[in-house]
Amino acid sequence: MRPSMLFNVLILFLFVQTSFCVSPTIKDVCSKISGGSVDYNFCVQALEADPKSEAADVLGLAAISLKLSIANATSIESKIMEFLKNVSDPTTKESMETCSHLYENTTITVLKQSADFIASKNFTAAEDVIGSASIVGIICAEELRETPLAKDCDNLSRLIFLATAVIHEILSTIDLHF
Ligand SMILES: *[C@@H]1O[C@H](CO)[C@@H](O)[C@H](O)[C@H]1NC(C)=O
Ligand SMILES: *[C@@H]1O[C@H](CO)[C@@H](O)[C@H](O)[C@H]1NC(C)=O
Ligand SMILES: *[C@@H]1O[C@H](CO)[C@@H](O)[C@H](O)[C@H]1NC(C)=O
Ligand SMILES: *[C@@H]1O[C@H](CO)[C@@H](O)[C@H](O)[C@H]1NC(C)=O
Ligand SMILES: *[C@@H]1O[C@H](CO)[C@@H](O)[C@H](O)[C@H]1NC(C)=O
């Protein structure tokens, strides 16, 4: 075989390889999971906030969406603590106390558990534990609807839906192959 021909075969081989083992990009994953509780543009924007997303496969995107959710929940939790120093309305105060408790003791805890399960490739357990974070997300977005934290809580809720959908996508891919 002439060297140039070998080179062509090599290029062809690489081409076939990459076109058949397409690593799911942000676009692929976001279009597969959008609709229902996930908005395509939100998905793309949220994942692109982490530069590691570009090169990540679907597993990496699950880990990144969980990481973003944990960071967001942590930042909202400390914002609530700041507001609580100053809130006088008893109803608002109670809602904020309830949600800071739920974010700290449920959301952040289960998101971290889910991330650990993803790291150990136990996707079923990762999906199981994240359910309660979704419920808290919905409850607190509603509970804090009239507060300056409404937009943040709504975004967190959407990020958790996103993470859940990416994990679900991993599970449905596995189901197809086995
Ligand atoms: C929360 O998520 C949004 C994207 O949904 C992002 O723009 C924002 O920077 C995140 N905040 C933190 C603290 O991670
Ligand atoms: C606390 O309340 C006072 C009076 O309503 C307001 O001027 C101040 O900006 C508030 N501080 C915070 C951190 O919300
Ligand atoms: C989380 O739970 C612990 C133990 O029940 C409690 O001491 C702590 O105050 C809770 N965190 C919040 C923010 O309420
Ligand atoms: C996944 O985690 C759950 C909960 O800890 C455990 O019961 C189950 O055996 C694990 N599955 C695998 C395949 O490791
Ligand atoms: C909510 O998410 C959108 C989309 O990622 C982002 O543009 C916006 O800045 C976020 N808002 C907050 C308050 O985190």
From TrEMBL:
Gene3D superfamilies: Invertase/pectin methylesterase inhibitor family protein. Residues 21-166 form the Pectinesterase inhibitor domain. Residues 1-21 form the signal peptide. Keywords: Disulfide bond, Signal. It holds the Pfam family PMEI. GO terms for molecular function: enzyme inhibitor activity. The keyword Iron does not apply. Belongs to the PMEI family. This is Invertase inhibitor. It comes from Phoenix dactylifera (Date palm).
